Amino acid sequence: xxxxxxxxxxxxxxxxxxxxxxxxxxxxxxxxxxxxxxxxxxxxxxxxxxxxxxxxxxxxxxxxxxxxxxxxxxxxxxxxxxxxxxxxxxxxxxxxxxxxxxxxxxxxxxxxxxxx
Length: 116
Hints:
single chain; mainly alpha; globular
């Protein structure tokens, strides 16, 4: 909460992705590589950093559910709640993507169609 809405910066901060990665590095370090791979794949395919971040956050509870339940139920709950939180913090990105005005990093898109 403090990263997304910091008191010292007029309640304007980041979107929570770096905080999620930092906490997962401590709580579930095995989860970092799959999330980074999902993030990179979506970024290369779409060019949208926000979409890649939301996709990786959605992949976190899915990866825990497929590999670690019922043993890591607290990690699953944490990842599920943080995934919802990250999607909520990206709601302006979602609106811009739907409107077609979100910045797309074309240089990172390896599989895009070439322009004539």
